[in-house]
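User: Here's a chain of 244 residues. Predict its fold as tokens.
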Amino acid sequence: MHKMQQLSACQLLDLIHAKRFGAEYQPIIEVKNGHIFAYECLSRFYDAQGQAIAPDIVYASLHKNPLSLFQVEYQQKLLQLDNAPDSTDIFVNLDQDSYSASDQLGQDNPFVVLFKDYKKANIIVELIENSQIKDALVSLAMIDNLSNNGIDTAIDDLFDPLSMLSTSVIQLVDFIKLDKYVIQEQKNQSLLPLVKAMVGYAHATNKKVILEGVETTEDLFFARQLGVDYVQGFLYKPLFEYIR
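Assistant: Prediction complete.
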């Protein structure tokens, strides 16, 4: 397996201390009318020269130190929510390890408090489904706590070929986000029936489905054929907020 590139300790400390953070807001579009339903808040990071650093690299580096991971994740959420549009729902990503790093796993968890106190718009918290059983257990506990505190939740990257499906997590969330892999494999006759079955399950249990990776009008047509509720992708221009 290819090892994720990581930042050096000096690079990471510079990024954290200088707060070289940014935020981007990707629109989530309602299929039936083309209106913006929500924005997803995405983390952006920069080096001292203002060049972008891939978020995956930053978070892979931060996972070595749970407290630093928590610190950056929390600062990012403050930044994202402070600058988010206030006319639509807001989707925010939350790393399971960031959530658990504070050792406050109930209603006093700093992220839970932050989301409950946010009044500008409704927040939907996304978690990434993955192949690690221990992460799935933390995800389940996190979603259960968020739901008990009246915070909507979503599962991200469903059908990513490197992820596994937790049926317990699926049952708890309010939104299901289908990975862009679904569009890439739309002619795969062994995958498509499974995707359609998941869309059917979601609607039968009052959940909404978002298809990611929509880049062309053909992708949008495919989304309509699947019967998803919302789409997201480069077909739609994001709002960009660069804060340094």
